[in-house]
Amino acid sequence: xxxxxxxxxxxxxxxxxxxxxKYVLPFVQQTVNLGIHTRVLEIGCGEGGVLKxxxxxxxxxxxxxxxxxRIDLAKGYLQAEVQAGKAVLLCQNxxxxxxxxTYQHQFDLIILKDTIEHxxxxxxxxxxxxxxxxxxxxxxxxFPPWYMPFGGHQQVCKNKLASILPYYHLLxxxxxxxxxxxxxxxxxxxxxxMEVKETGISIERFxxxxxxxxLKVLAKQHFLINPIYYYKFGWKPRKQLGIIxxxxxxxxxxxxxxxxxxxxx
Length: 265
Prior knowledge:
This protein is of the alpha/beta class. The chain folds into 2 domains: 4-147 and 202-264, Rossmann fold (3-Layer(aba) Sandwich), CATH 3.40.50.150; 154-199, no CATH class. 42% of the residues lie in helices and 21% in strands. It has helices spanning 4-7, 9-28, 51-56, 68-77, 79-83, 97-103, 122-128, 160-164, 173-182, 187-199, 203-212, 229-233, 242-245, 250-254; strands spanning 39-43, 60-65, 87-91, 107-113, 133-143, 215-225, 238-239, 257-264. Strands 3-2-1-4-5-8-6-7 form an 8-stranded mixed sheet, with helices on both faces. Strand 1 (39-43), helix 3 and strand 2 (60-65) form a beta-alpha-beta unit.
């Protein structure tokens, strides 16, 4: 059962703005001194809502996304900031040489909010991000661990049962695909959900990649209830219990969202 934010980009944009202002920005400010002339890159920026609170405190931002429609929407929502030269919004692949040459070592902060779980070859991608950081620059990651109840993003399904049934994304790929077909999901939707199954990332694998990339965790917060759920479902955000966060693997099943900032060792 698709939620209203899945159908209305304006609702989605405003939810991004509110969530980033109340949760993402304060979390990042624990380790990053943000303000005028701070340069911020968001990869997978969508409609640009996450960037809005950073612009409001004086940051200069670049948003990049592979979806041209969403970038066009972002240019509309952030029109004043784009015209003022405070925001640049691009439909481009960050692996392109032109992007690398333009933005190498340009940013104090890189944001990946609900993005890393969609990117293939994360072992290659995460260390590649260091190319865009200034000295002492940091990267924010916010994502749902793969093993959490809806880590497969099945909440976007149009069939109500398919959208509220937890954990079945963890079934073997052929079984999961069969169930999605049985629920009547479209071929396009099934393809997208199967792609998420291939790229979903656990807490342990994320932390291992960070370590192997020559990066270190500077701050982290695990959530029992994802802050964005307040805007989607009216559920009050709740931080994860420390004892649960300390339990490897098991914590993934009960943690709906994690926030991390990382920087070079």
